[in-house]
Design a protein that fits this description.
The longest helix has 14 residues, at 227-240. The protein has two domains: 3-119, Ribosomal Protein S5, domain 2; 126-274, lpxc deacetylase, domain 1. The chain has helices at residues 75-84, 106-115, 174-181, 190-198, 227-240, 257-267, and strands spanning 3-5, 9-14, 21-28, 35-39, 47-49, 55-57, 63-66, 69-72, 89-93, 117-119, 125-128, 133-137, 140-145, 150-158, 164-171, 187-189, 211-214, 217-218, 246-253, 273-274. Strands 11, 12, 13, 14, 15, 19 and 20 form a seven-stranded mixed beta sheet that branches. By secondary structure, the protein is an alpha+beta fold. It is built from six helices and 20 strands. The chain is globular and about 55 Å long.
């Protein structure tokens, strides 16, 4: 059956890229609502659905837009909602970007644990992959194959000598998500900070919410030796949640928000069926 959260819950922090203070409030929502973001700082609190058709930008994060309602860097929260099993939720947000928290999804997961879940009266709808779908860009790709569940196999290739090639394969369950994926933080590089901030990005980034590297290695302590690829898997979960609940085996090499969301748009063609 579909599920929503059992209780209202809120969290305040700053946005990773905007650096702006923001409060999110998660509310229960009726069946078939999906996940919607409502900008409470704007007149009439316009809302945008968390759907692949609403993606308008993928530079460094995933942006959703519908009229005056615009939100970005939503992938970590969406990943937590997806794996927690929340089908319907209204997210009131007081700024364009959710809080970065610690740069991972574990804070959002802990919020959901506090809020709890409530079963609803309609059956859950899923998109069950019956053939291969693939998106390519030069030497980068993301594909999804038939599989009874959600599995992600990701290869990350980074020129930094302390990162290099990383591979991670995981069947996504609540247990594996919490232990192996949700705690993986955003990766940043000292040499990129000035350029990013000149573009209005990473204004809220710090050693408290990112694993930062310089030419000598990590400036602060990673949580995993392969934290980069685990965070890439986290992003895939959040981006593919824009196609609803998908059953399949994702295989990706050097994929990005652009490729992830392009695949999510392809998956909208799959007819939803009752779980």
């Amino acid at each position: 059956m579909q599920q929503t959260i059992a209780n209202h819950i809120s969290y305040t922090g700053i946005g990773l890229h905007s650096g702006q203070p923001v409060t999110i409030e998660l509310h229960p929502a009726p069946e078939d609502t999906g996940i919607v973001f409502c900008r409470t700082d704007l007149s009439n609190a316009p809302c945008v659905a968390a759907g692949a058709a609403q993606v308008t930008d993928t530079m460094r994060a995933t942006t959703l837009e519908d009229g005056t309602a615009k939100v970005f860097t939503v992938e970590h929260l969406l990943a937590a909602l997806r794996v927690f099993g929340i089908d319907n939720c209204r997210v009131d947000i007081s700024s364009p970007e959710p809080p970065v928290a610690d740069g991972s999804a574990i804070v959002f997961w802990q919020l959901l644990e506090r809020a709890g879940s409530r079963e609803q009266k309609k059956r859950r709808l899923v998109r069950r992959v019956a053939k291969e779908y693939i998106v390519r860009d030069a030497d980068k790709f993301i594909a999804i194959l038939p599989y009874d569940g959600l599995r992600i196999s990701f290869t990350s290739v980074n020129p930094h000598p302390f990162l290099g090639v990383q591979y991670f394969d995981c069947i996504i369950t609540p247990e594996s998500f919490v232990a192996e994926i949700a705690q993986a933080r955003t990766i940043g590089f000292l040499h990129e900070i000035e350029a990013l901030q000149a573009q209005g990005l990473a204004l809220g980034g710090s050693l408290e919410n990112a694993v930062v590297y310089d030419q000598n290695g990590s400036v602060n302590e990673p949580r995993f030796t392969d934290e980069l690829v685990r965070h890439k898997v986290l992003d895939v979960i959040g981006d593919l949640a824009l196609a609803g609940i998908v059953r399949g085996h994702v295989i990706a090499v050097k994929s990005s928000h652009a490729l992830n969301t392009a695949l999510a748009k392809q998956l909208l063609d799959i007819e939803q069926e009752e779980e």
